[in-house]
Amino acid sequence: MKLILGSSSKFRRSVMDELGVHYEVVVPDIDEKAIRSNDPDELVLAIANAKADAVVARVQEPAFVITSDQVVVWNGQIREKAESIEQAKEFIRSYSEHSAVVVNGMTVTNTETGKRVHSVEAMHVWYMPIPEDIIDLIASEPDTMLSAGALRFESSIWQKFMIHTDGSADHAMGLPKKQLFDLFKQHGLDL
Q1: What pLDDT digit, counting tens, does each position of 136-159 carry?
Q2: Which of 49, 72, 104, 120 could cross-link to 79 by cystine, CB 3.0-4.6 Å?
Q3: 158-162: long-range contacts (C-beta < 8 A, 24 or more apart)?
Q4: Regarding beta strands 116-127 and 2-5, do their DSSP bridges make them parallel or antiparallel, or are they unpaired?
């Protein structure tokens, strides 16, 4: 059976590439902003499911479809992608005040059987204060505007200011490998 990543994210593609498995990309065409919830777990899972529905409707052959969504929660606020450079700077500056919680919702759907499994996982990241010139540098990088909460865990610049995390780079990049492996096990497969 085919393996399909339902995502436009280059970060998720890089995690799939690390796995060394053959997969195809089908970009879900949904309006994520039309899906809302004040609960971050419910929000990421609702968006991941909507992406799965959109991709599964376009897949003709038997396949496993992987979809996910991510938000950052800071001091109780749900953060998606920054809408401006100024907002990105505000987000980055704030991470030294409170930890950032990166929340991922993921689904794996078997198009042949219709079985869909899902999970939500979170990780925390703590940062020391980041100097304004570094904040300007991080905010000006194009990938910052593509990242939930403008949080670029995998960036070597960010790494210098990290105090502690209870997660991994692939989690912060939106496709945690452990979470993915666990979902495939629920399908009776070892990815």
Answers
A1: 999 999 899 999 999 988 788 888
A2: 72
A3: 158/127, 161/96, 161/127, 161/128, 161/129, 161/130, 161/134, 162/125, 162/126, 162/127, 162/128
A4: unpaired
Q: What percent of the chain has pLDDT over 70?
A: 100
- Strands 116-127 and 77-79 come out as unpaired
Torsion angle of C-alpha atoms 80, 81, 86, 88, degrees rounded to 10: 80
Do 57 and 135 contact (CB within 8 A), yes or no?
A: no
Cβ neighbours, 10 Å, residue 82: 22
| C-alpha span between 173 and 148 (Å, rounded) | 9
Domains annotated on the chain, with CATH: 2-186 (3.90.950.10)
